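Can you make up a protein sequence with its backbone structure tokens?

===
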Amino acid sequence: MSVFVCPCACVLVMLMCLCIQAMWLMLQQDSAQDYVIATGSSHSVREFVVAAFQQIGVEIMYVNTSL
């Protein structure tokens, strides 16, 4: 039996866990405030897609890159 795990799903689960932890930490504060949840680094959607597909051994070829 083989199991295929989408790397995108793994990343989403990890991000969800981080967001849940951040929400829990916000709820521990004495008073309500505004918060920003961030990783501290910026990445384009293209970088994310390339990294995700590299995990499963698929090379991405962009056809229309003029945008």
